[in-house]
Amino acid sequence: MGIVEEAHNVKILGSGEQTVVLAHGFGTDQSVWKHLVPHLVDDYKIILFDNMGAGTTNPDYFDFERYSSLEGYAYDVIAILEDLKIPGCIYVGHSVSAMIGVIASIARPDLFTKLVTVSASPRYLNDSDYYGGFEQEDLDQLFEAMSSNYKAWCSGFAPLVVGGDMDSVAIQEFSRTLFNMRPDIALSVLQIIFLSDLRHLLARVTVPCHIIQSMKDLAVPVVVSEYLHQHLGGESIVEVMSTEGHLPQLSSPDVVIPVMLRHIRHDIVV
């Protein structure tokens, strides 16, 4: 295994002809896909990895300059695919990793046959003609709370983002992976995510995109999925599920897994 794969804890499962790459969002690691993997492993080659900065990666490898924008993460994805000599993959990206996939697919469309995005947003801040769900004041308070007491912030943030029952396994799981992050890295990563604006890139996407979204998501208003659909350069399709929360693959697997499998297995019919 090369340095890139080792740094990102790359795991390869299954032996199908088609490759599915599973990319996790902020505050989680590859374990967020535990309900999906068993349904894919017989038919596909699956690549799992951890984004740099996740609690499962070595914090010494986290380069604050490289990861001062989402491009650094996109180059990591490209490096993993190149190292493993993957000719074209179905890329499933959750939250920020959906947009990382967007950036990577613009740079190297040959590496992707399609993108499947879960809870994706090109911009979180509201704008004059755009509703992202947050005002700058909201984010300032969020970052301040993170800085002052990370553990307390995690305890409050996890239930809000996951939604549903306060004692749910999904909230406990997200709290665990969130708390595993080094606080200064977590703050830096979340600031990059929440302050990014990738709307200008959407028209340059040529790879087909399957957009999956919860009906109710504190981090991503449902109108954002329609915005993506209208502004992506390639073919796209939207499916809004009757789920709550930003991590539906963890909190509502019974609803989400069949939807994800359908989008992974079937292409957009034009």
Automatic annotation (TrEMBL):
The superkingdom listed in its UniProt entry is Eukaryota
What keyword terms does UniProt attach to this protein? Hydrolase, Receptor
Q: Which Pfam families match?
A: Abhydrolase_1
The Gene Ontology biological process annotation of the record reads: response to karrikin
Family annotation (SUPFAM superfamilies): alpha/beta-Hydrolases
**Which InterPro entries is this protein grouped with?**
AB_hydrolase_1, AB_hydrolase_fold
One example of the protein's molecular function in GO is: hydrolase activity
N-terminal signal peptide? none
Protein family: Belongs to the AB hydrolase superfamily.
Name of the protein described by the UniProt record: Karrikin insensitive 2 receptor CA
Q: Which organism is it from?
A: Nicotiana tabacum
**What gene is it encoded by?**
LOC107827980
